[in-house]
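Please fill in the sequence for the structure shown.

STRUCTURE ENCODING:
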């Protein structure tokens, strides 16, 4: 019976670890895509983000936006 309870207590930790690993995998894929984009384009290359208020933007502006959003979300982790 004790072993069964120990397994039940460990399950949330495993689920959290699984979610963290999935999140890290997603970020890794995004980093690879971002690196390829940054390598391929000039910093002032124009792009289009249809859901932004001013959808025609430079790569630099997108990079600043992503950096700001990532930083904000990272501060929330663990709270």
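FILLED IN BY: designer on duty
SEQUENCE:
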């Amino acid at each position: 019976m004790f072993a069964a309870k120990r397994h039940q207590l460990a399950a949330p930790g495993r689920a959290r670890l699984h979610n963290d690993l999935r999140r890290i995998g997603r970020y890794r894929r995004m980093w690879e895509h971002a690196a390829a984009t940054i390598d391929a384009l000039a910093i002032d290359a124009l792009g289009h983000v249809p859901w932004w208020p001013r959808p025609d933007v430079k790569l630099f502006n997108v990079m600043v936006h992503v950096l700001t959003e990532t930083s904000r979300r990272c501060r929330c982790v663990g709270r």
